Each structure stands twice: as structure tokens, then as C-alpha cells.
Amino acid sequence: MVPTFVDQSGHHATSDHEKAEVLAVNFESQYVNKSNTSFTLPPDYKSDQEIPWVTVAEMLKFIQKCKNSCSDTPDKVPFKFLKLIAPFIASPLSQICNLSMMRGEVPEKWQQSIITPINKIAKPQVPTDFRPISITSQICRIYERFVLSKLLPFLDKIRFWNNNQHGFRPKRSTVSCMLESLNDWTNSIERGSQVDVIYFDYAKAFDRVPHDLLLDKLVSIKLNGNLLKWLASYLSNRTFTVKVTKNQSSTKMAQCGVPQGAVLSPILFGIYVNEIRSKLPMGVHCKQFADDIKLYSEIPKDSDPQNNKLKQAIDAICQ
């Protein structure tokens, strides 16, 4: 249930359309890290990753693995319908997706989202009590799953992930993250030391990822050039509307960030924050799970408090 809001002019938004508009304005205000340059591949760019062409068999498999959904999407094509006609559309759909990858261009409908506001607390009162969950094109989501199936093995092949990241990786979870931390803390305490722990949570983490910095990181790991251009197109010129019951707001622009709820967003955010561990001073430990981070440091007895490097680590993460 979305409560009555007061908009920027002091007007009480009571209808569902007015509530959707107030939420849309609030969500748009979070996109503060606009990129000022368009993406171009560096001169003489080379990559060992092959172009991820999708076959008819793969397309059919990914369509059939999708869960049934009747959510309203920008392209008005529900999963349930796609699964019914999967054998007939797998071939032309794979050709469309391969053409998109070859050109490095994403169809306009794939850049649109219908946002469902999900409350972050039990009794939301203001627009900031809601998080934006994006409902995107079902066809795009199918293709994203294929892209993800090619991206993850490549990252493992180049040993991209730092060992402190427990999100996005097989056989790792919040449980493995906590067990490793608890083991380190126990060892420190058994040595008679103090352990200082600091927990971080990014504000609007997915919404504020700067596209230019993210793409720079993707270039540095030598992703395939066609895939890079496709991802740049996927991230750029994104628009959204907010839906409350059956009412939608006017169209707004998402100037930065990765859409919450999209298939590729978690892995793209993971790539963006992966280098944090390498920026920390010696003696400071780090455990990550997606956008949640904890820093901790062992402080031996009789040590000089001025030598605590956690402050340096905090500055490094902020930077």
C-alpha cells in the first residue's frame, strides 16, 4: 500500500497517478552520477574472449527455463506466452539477438523499465522508504541470462574475483562470508587481541554506478569488443515509469546505475566494486557480499592506537 505523499510544491498526492509521479521524481533524483562522454573502444583494442553468439538450441533452452510471469512489461510480452510459442520463435529470436550483439546496439524497448516500488520498511511514509525494482523486457531478460552464462566463465578463467567477494560466485554465500569472518575474529581473540569491525552499506548502490567508470573496468578486463559496445548501449539512454496499481507516471531518465531487478545488474555491480580489497592497507581485512562490506582489523595488546589503519581503509573505500 502506497501512502499519501506531499510533493515538492506541498501538494498532497492522493491518487495512484499522483503517487506514481512523486515516486518517479524521487527515483530520478537518485541518478546523480551522469556520464559526460559516450563510450568508444580504445584504439587497437583486442580481447581473447569470443563474440557470444547465441544458438537456436541455447535460445530455446533459456526460454523454457524461465518462470511463468504475467507482469506488465515495456514490450507487453509475458513469459507465459513466450514459453507457449518457444519452438516457433527460438530461431528468429536468436537471429535478432545476434544482430543486436553484432551491431552493439540494444533495441529501445530493452532500455525501458516499469518500476514497481517496494517498501523497505513495514510502514512506509515517504518516497525514500521505497526501493525501485525494474520490470524490463522479458525477451531482453532471456538474452541477459545467455550473456551472463558467457560472462561468468570468462571472469573465472581470468581469475577476476578477489577471494573476499562472496556474492555472485558458486559455492559462496552469506554463510561462507560470515564463517570466514568469525574464524578470523576467533583466532584474534584467542591471541588476546582486540578486533575492531566496521560495516558498510552503499546508499543507492545499484542506482549510482557511473557508467563511464564501470565501462572502464570492463575494458580493463578485456571483454569482447562487441559485448562491450552492447553493454554500453544496454546501460545508456535508459528510461522508466513508476507503476502504482494500474497507473503509471510520466517517463523519466536513468542517467546512471544498473537497473535493480535486471539479470546482469548484480554481476555488473560486482565487477564495479571488486577492486576494493586491493586498495586497503596491510593489516585490514575485508569481506564482501555484493554491496555489503565489512572491514576488520586485529589490534594486539599494548599497541599504539595511532597505528590503527581502519581510518585509512575507510578513506580508501570512499575514494
How do you describe this structure in short?
Helices cover 39% and strands 16% of the residues. It has 319 residues and is an alpha+beta fold.
Task: Compile the SSE list and pairings.
Blueprint: E1 5-6, E2 12-13, H1 16-28, H2 56-65, H3 79-84, H4 86-103, E3 112-119, E4 130-135, H5 138-157, H6 174-190, E5 194-201, H7 211-220, H8 225-235, E6 238-244, E7 247-248, E8 252-254, H9 265-273, E9 284-289, E10 292-299, H10 310-318
Parallel strand pairs: 3-6
Antiparallel strand pairs: 1-2, 3-4, 5-10, 6-7, 6-8, 9-10
Helix pairs in contact: 2-4, 2-5, 4-8, 7-8, 7-9
Structural overview:
The chain is an alpha+beta fold. It contains 10 helices and 10 strands. Strand 6 and strand 7 form a beta hairpin. The two termini are about 40 Å apart.
Keywords:
single chain, about 325 residues, alpha+beta, 5-stranded mixed beta sheet, 10 helices, 10 strands, about 40% helix
